[in-house]
Design goal:
There is one protein chain. By secondary structure, this protein is mostly helical. 64% of the residues lie in helices and 5% in strands. It has three domains: 239 residues, no CATH class; 143 residues, no CATH class; 126 residues. It is built from 29 helices and eleven strands. The strands form four sheets. The chain has a five-stranded mixed sheet with strand order 8-7-9-11-10, covered by helices on one side. A two-stranded antiparallel sheet has the order 1-2. A two-stranded antiparallel sheet has the order 3-4. The protein is globular and about 85 Å long.
């Protein structure tokens, strides 16, 4: 059967199962406690509120039920909530599709946008089969890790056994935030053989996109006093801005053209963000790191809960406190970096409440923090015990001004102590290139607001406070755990969200033609016409950036096979990537269907981030770099060199030597492909022992029988 059709079917089935964890929990608690006047809302608004509430509470609930109980208990609990959700819908069915005629077109537009997003994401994320060639998306580089962990949770429970490290006994994978993968694993298990771990991950990306849209809609509803049609229009404008990015299209396309002309190699590797220290576009956040995006949604939802229950009954306020705490706990299990930024923000907000003598609000904030600490304690216990297993050591953050690409080219030509000052000098231009329309729109929003108008709206005050607090943090600190600055990239989500909301308001005002009386800024007069001249080109470039990024992510592997770049590249040594990927999936499907579940398999660990092993593998591996969390770097490198020797022509000539090494590292099956040095010796080895499976690019052998 065609692999693309299989992925579409499996991912579609997973999509239909996710409401049990991403709709039902939030709908039930929203209905019971009537958060944000839940019961009086329109059906689509209730579903949006239920979605963000579920993103806040389901990750930590799924973890606790699985960690302290079992997968069956977690599935039963979410199934029960799903049944209650259906009963509530049945009870309220006469009103479910009732809405005012003046907002009907906006409801229909929202549904079409959701459908369009689902189709677009499915097309981009599934494997694309063209004859006997198979092409993954570029973001499958990160899905390699995520799918393998989801599969490990389905096989071994919570905390999962590390699927890529086996020193003779199972090793718990605790040095990682994995709550998102717990939810995907529940869907993987509910789908049985029809849903794979990778397909569940694809569906989770799509649902994360739905949740991000829902957050924009709910936040817009809660912060605005406009009429219902205006609020719907404003919310849809904000959702539409998810398709807008910075100005990356200009430098990225220039760099690709120059590198191709000068060296024959197209630099950037299929991701438009790689040209600079990125502020990841919303499309990239969803495709590459949905768990970080979900952590951001959980944090903002928790904040909205505490803001929304100020004037309600004690029962509702206590429920809001508990659920806000669950939201913070979920966020920590989804992304330590996003939660760390929000924790700083939360502490500063609480200090501000104390200074203003608003002791009641400070009490609720402390209470939610205590609930979060209690809910997350089993995860923290595992995390701190997992640290003993290895890790890079050292403090995870350091002071460093956000880098700009120009300084990278000047590192060898100017004194090293001048680099930080150069980065500081380029910082405004750096942010303008990364934010584009949103930076300009935020500036115009501030002019439009007036000097003291922000004091009249609590949400405006909160948004300004969030922006002024988080931007310096992510500008002058960077993470040191891996080469990527995950702290600076993911922490910007809060600032991006605020600028998106302001950009939506500016565009809405432009349409209403009521936005801006003439103001003089730096000697220039800014009025309605000037604002349009500034924003419209930036808006168009932002859309072009997103479209270009989507094209690269989906079609870059195909372009590699068309020899648009020199070889070898990161994902392929030649122009046979599609054929090799097709062969890899066939080989791993054979292993899944024919190799005993408790056998340990091994590919060549010298291949960095072997995608098929993580995307399609379903067995424990002796060593894999995509799940090396918590493993001592020295121990990992030593084992990597020794196991890698099994695939080296200079050391593997007889099965006796191979079996001895396999016995030492507890390996039952070797997965060899045509890029391994031992491939040329296979005819001699197969005389002594036939392979279990073979195709043009892969062979599977039993070892240590």
């Amino acid at each position: 059967m065609n692999f693309t059709l299989r992925d579409l079917f499996g991912s579609g089935l997973a999509l239909s199962l996710f409401p049990f964890v991403f709709i039902a929990p939030g709908y039930v608690v929203g209905w019971v406690f009537d958060f944000w006047i839940f019961r009086c809302r329109l059906p689509l608004v209730r579903l949006a509120m239920a979605l963000i509430l579920s993103v806040a509470v389901s990750p930590v609930l799924g973890f606790l039920l699985y960690r302290l109980g079992s997968g069956a208990i977690a599935l039963s609990f979410f199934g029960l909530l799903g049944l209650i959700f259906v009963l509530i819908l049945f009870r309220t069915r006469p009103r479910f599709f009732a809405f005012q005629p003046e907002i009907a077109r906006y409801v229909h537009a929202a549904l079409w946008i959701g459908l369009g997003w689902g189709i677009l994401a499915l097309f981009s994320l599934v494997d694309l089969q063209l004859g006997s060639r198979l092409y993954e998306t570029v973001s499958a580089q990160d899905t390699t890790t995520r799918a393998s962990i989801i599969d490990a949770i389905s096989r071994t429970g919570v905390p999962p056994t590390n699927p890529g490290y086996y020193p003779g006994q199972p090793v718990p994978l605790t040095f990682l935030y994995y709550f998102w993968y717990v939810l995907a694993s529940l869907v993987d298990q509910a789908g049985g053989v029809l849903v794979t771990a990778r397909q569940a991950m694809i569906a989770s990306v799509i649902w994360c996109g739905f949740a991000l849209m829902a957050l924009i809609a709910v936040y817009t509803r809660l912060r605005s006093n406009r009429s219902a049609p205006q609020i719907w229009k404003l919310a849809l404008t904000g959702i539409g801005l998810l398709a807008v990015s910075g100005l990356d299209f200009l430098p990225a396309s220039f760099i690709m053209y120059i590198s191709r002309s000068a060296t024959g190699t197209v630099w950037l590797g299929g991701d438009i963000e790689h040209w600079n220290e990125q502020i990841t576009a919303w499309l990239g956040c969803l495709f590459w790191v949905p768990h970080h995006t979900a952590a951001f949604i959980a944090c903002v939802t928790a904040l909205l809960l505490l803001e929304g229950v100020r004037m309600t009954s004690l029962r509702t306020r206590l429920a809001g406190l508990v659920l806000a705490g669950f939201g913070f706990a979920s966020a920590l299990g989804l992304s330590v970096w996003v939660t760390l930024v929000f924790a700083v923000l939360w502490g500063v907000l609480m200090l501000a409440q104390l200074i203003q003598k608003n002791y009641r609000m400070a009490f609720w904030m402390v209470g939610s923090g205590l609930v979060a600490g209690l809910a997350i304690s089993p995860f923290l216990w595992d995390l701190f015990h997992g640290m003993a297993g290895g890790g890079s050591g050292g403090f995870p953050l350091k002071i460093e001004i956000r880098q700009f690409i120009v300084t990278l080219f000047l590192e060898n030509t100017i004194p090293s102590n001048a680099i930080p000052w150069l980065n500081l000098l380029f910082l405004p231009f750096n942010y303008f290139m990364e934010l584009g329309f949103f930076l300009a729109a935020g500036w115009i929003w501030w002019l439009m607001l007036g000097r003291n108008s922000w004091k009249e709206n609590r949400f405006y005050q909160l948004e300004i406070f969030i922006l002024l607090t988080t931007v310096p943090i992510v500008t002058f600190l960077r993470s040191t755990v891996i080469g990527n600055n995950d702290f600076g990239w993911r922490g910007w989500l809060f600032g991006q969200f605020i600028l998106l909301l302001w950009g939506a308001e500016v565009l809405f005002s432009l349409q209403q033609k009521d936005m801006l009386s003439p103001k003089r800024v730096w000697g220039f007069e800014i009025d309605l016409r000037t604002a349009k001249r500034i924003l419209i080109p930036l808006l168009m470039l932002g859309v072009m950036t997103t479209v270009f990024d989507f094209i690269l992510l989906r079609f870059w592997p195909i372009l590699v096979d068309q020899n648009v770049t020199a070889f070898p590249v990161e994902i392929s040594p030649d122009a046979h990537l599609g054929e090799r990927t097709f062969a890899a999936r066939l080989a791993y499907e054979y292993i899944q269907e024919n190799i005993p579940a408790n056998w340990v398999v091994q590919y060549n660990p010298m291949r960095t981030l072997d995608r098929p092993a993580g995307l399609y593998g379903s067995h424990q591996m002796a060593l894999a770099d995509f799940t090396s969390y918590g493993v001592s770097p020295d121990s990992f490198q030593k084992r990597r060199q020794e196991i890698g020797a099994l695939f080296d022509t200079e050391t593997t000539f007889t099965w006796q030597a191979v079996d001895t090494a396999c016995k030492r590292y507890f390996i039952d099956v070797l997965i060899i492909n045509d890029t391994d040095g031992v491939w040329k010796n296979l005819p001699a080895l197969k005389i002594q022992r036939p392979s279990l499976y073979q195709n043009d690019y892969y062979e599977v052998f039993r070892c240590n029988p």
